[in-house]
Amino acid sequence: MQRPQLSIIVVSFNMERELPRTLFTLRAPYQQGIVNEEVEILVVDNGSSTPPDSNMMPHGVRLLQADTPTASPVAAINQGLREAQSDFIGVMIDGARLASPGICRYALDAKKLYSRPLVATLGFHLGPDVQMKSVQQGYNQAAEDHLLSTVPWQEDGYHLFSISVFAGSSKQGWFQPMAESNAVFMLREMWEELGGYDLRFTTPGGGLANLDLYVRACNLAGSQLVTLLGEGTFHQVHGGIATNQSRPEASWPVFHQEYQKIRGHPFSLPTNKTEYLGSFPPQAFASIQESAKKLP
Predict the structure, then answer these.
(1) Cα 95–Cα 98–Cα 101 angle in degrees, nearest 5
(2) Fewer beta carbons within 10 angstroms: which end of the chain, N or C?
């Protein structure tokens, strides 16, 4: 059996509504320019109260149960990294994120074009505002279901741009540094050099573990940051720790304190020069205009 060209690790926790949509967006024909045999999907369930049913997984999707489920997903991710069969691996730390249709194709293109690519994607929130705010104004799963029904996203996922806003980590838009990537791709050797995600990030949801991973990857010797234009991930509302809830134990001050304890300095955005790969669909034109206004 031929090894996949790409493995994607998706972490799930109590996402009965969201996960099937996410997986739909990672398989052809929704994903354009690939055949499903090229891409291996590994779902690592991090202790859901009702675990996903392996018999309901789409063809080509492998379900793993986290060996030691914790409030932080980092151990589950590292388990997925060990199980992945490809030498090129992507991680989606949050299984509630819909992917745009060209992510897999352009990630594989980057692998061909660069010797040590760090492929990063911008993040978006479905709804009228970042979900930390919109949920306070009544945005919920029912409202989101209705919103998704207003566009033919299953036939053309680029319509998701028209019903979403930049996530806080990507608030500076397409052309300035981002704080993290919620679908990040690297060679296996790069993941191994990093040691995967840092297990010291134990706060709910992993705290700043994903931001930390992105910064460390940017600092890897010889890594080439490649940002995908016109592609992204779109967060579904689901009661997530960082995006959809207001909890004292899961706040920026708590997360940042943990980060500083581990790294010994405050968090700061990476400022690596980035190469751009991709193209803009018409539905993303408004986000280009918004991004241009944010340029110095």
Answers:
(1) 135
(2) C
Query: Phi and psi of 278, rounded to 5°?
Result: 130, -165
Cβ atoms of residues 100 and 62 within 8 Å = no
pLDDT tens sequence across 36-79 = 999 999 999 999 999 999 988 998 899 999 999 999 999 999 99
Is residue 222 a contact partner of residue 117, using CB atoms and an 8 Å limit?
Answer: no
Domain annotation for the chain: domains and CATH numbers:
6-293 (3.90.550.10)
Tens of pLDDT, residues 6-39: 999 999 999 999 999 999 999 999 999 999 999 9
16: exposed, middle or buried (C-beta count within 10 Å: 0-12, 13-18, 19+)?
middle
- The rounded distance, in Å, linking the Cα atoms of 153 and 258 is 38
Mean pLDDT of the 205-234 span: 98
Return the SS3 of 75. Answer: helix
Q: Compute the distance between CA of residue 236 and CA of residue 140 in angstroms, rounded to an integer.
A: 9
Question: Above 50 in pLDDT, residue 272?
Answer: yes
Q: Answer for the pair 51, 71: CB distance below 8 angstroms, yes or no.
A: no
pLDDT in tens, 128-178: 999 999 999 999 999 999 999 999 999 999 999 999 999 999 999 999 999
Per-residue model confidence (pLDDT) at position 236? 97
β-strand pairing of 224-235 with 97-99: antiparallel
Q: How far apart are CA 234 and CA 110, in angstroms?
A: 21
Closest CA to 211 of 142, 151, 260, 161: 260
Distance between CA atoms of 32 and 18, rounded to whole angstroms? 21
Distance CA(139)–CA(77), nearest Å, equals 29
